[in-house]
Specification:
Length: 409
């Protein structure tokens, strides 16, 4: 029997899908993550934007092209938000975000199985892959309720795993790089232990430790000192911004100002002068004026980001932002184009600044004659020839395909 696990959305979804794959393998299924013929399909959905939710529904039709008679199981944020819409498309079983770990118990059932929020979770099926990088989910849910975001309503309140449980998983996986991820990593707290405590506990490992996305509130001297205590830390901080305008941040219910954000970046650079600071920015939020958008562009220059994930605002029904009058699509498109130009400018500037530097590099794959992977400060790197998948050091020669061409040293 063959099963395909198809994933949309964030790295947390990818990590949860990996756990499902482990479970399916244990009960005798051959598994794949590619859309191809299978006996059953598991679709792990996303609802962070309207487009993501649309693609989640469209996935049903896509898998039916491979096997019209296959059983289809759906989980994730889009199914939590509107489970009946998937049942109406002939899906066998729908679970939400809180029952993903129980989906395999429902393979012989049919219907909707949506569970209430959990306070903590420990049941876990780590998936040891052939990849050099593994994603370690430490936390789920979010308490922030930003006015544009539907995720807290779908994922529930923040809850975390114990440090012991996380350490056990990293020991089992023994990756070259462990990426600390979650819906809101900065909210990590278990029995009074917070993110710096967890990072201190990871000093026993020789693998590279990298953060996923962080919030400004978590950037403290205590966290920086914990990072310095690690054997191998990736100086890459993805700090969510969303807007460079204080008035828009307030309307979004983001609980910091641009001045506070800049202070946190300054703190990071005091410890890690060459750190990559990357971010997310939403353009075209309902209260964003032309002046507000220009403030965002100027703030990007001030911070000197290494990269920016750019998104047009997507109204999510059920959020506070949905009550506001939305901006015309043409305004959002024009602003997105300008921000994408700024992103390219800043990204190239960051890479060019690193030319001539020697950086640690972990290969991930081989493509078109090059070994490809990422440096510690998250520059996509190309080295000619096929290298073993283990950490080495490279010297950056020049920019190359939004990354850097390098040579071994």
């Amino acid at each position: 029997m063959k099963a395909v696990v198809f994933t949309l959305g964030c790295k947390v979804n990818s990590q949860e899908s990996a756990s499902l794959i482990t479970g399916l393998n244990e009960i005798g299924y051959q598994t794949s993550t590619k859309l191809e013929w299978a006996d059953i399909y598991v679709i792990n959905t996303c609802a962070v934007t309207g487009e993501a939710e649309k693609k989640s529904r469209q996935a049903i039709a896509r898998v039916r092209k491979f096997n019209q008679d296959a059983k289809i199981y759906v989980c994730g944020c889009a199914s939590q938000k509107n489970p009946q819409s998937f049942i109406d498309k002939g899906v066998q079983v729908v679970v939400g975000t809180n029952a993903k770990d129980k989906l395999l118990e429902h393979l012989n059932d049919s219907g909707i199985f949506i569970e209430a929020d959990k306070e903590y979770y420990q049941k876990y099926l780590p998936c040891k892959s052939s990849h050099t990088r593994e994603y370690i989910k430490i936390q789920d849910g979010c308490n922030n309720f930003c006015s544009y975001c539907i995720i807290p309503y779908l994922r529930g309140r923040s809850r975390s795993r114990s440090i012991e449980n996380i350490v056990e998983e990293i020991k089992y996986l023994s990756p070259a790089e462990a990426v600390i991820t979650g819906i809101n990593v900065s909210a990590y707290e278990y029995n009074g232990k917070k993110l710096p405590d967890l990072i201190n506990a990871l000093s026993q490992f020789d693998c590279r430790i990298r953060f996923g996305s962080l919030e400004v509130v978590s950037i403290t001297e205590e966290l920086m000192l914990a990072c310095k205590n690690l054997n191998d830390f990736a100086p890459h901080f993805h700090l969510s911004l969303q807007s460079g305008s204080d008035s828009v941040l307030k309307s979004m219910n983001r609980r910091y100002t641009t001045a506070e954000y800049a202070d946190k970046v300054q703190l990071i650079r005091r410890y890690y002068p060459d750190a990559a600071i990357t971010t997310d920015i939403i353009v075209g939020y309902s209260t964003e004026s032309d002046q507000n958008f220009e403030e965002t562009l100027n703030f990007c220059d001030q911070i000197n980001f290494a990269d920016i994930h750019c998104f047009p605002y997507s109204v999510r029904e059920g959020t506070a932002g949905a009550k506001l009058k939305k901006l015309p699509d043409e305004i959002k498109r024009a602003r997105l184009e300008k921000l994408m130009q700024k992103k390219a400018e800043l990204k190239n500037r960051f890479i060019e600044k690193q030319v001539g530097q020697v950086l640690s590099f972990i290969p991930e794959e081989y493509e078109n004659g090059y070994t490809v992977g990422y440096t510690a400060n998250y520059i996509r790197t190309y080295v000619h020839g096929k290298l073993p998948l283990k950490k080495c050091f490279v010297k950056l020669i020049c920019s190359f395909n939004e990354g850097a061409l390098c040579e071994l040293v």
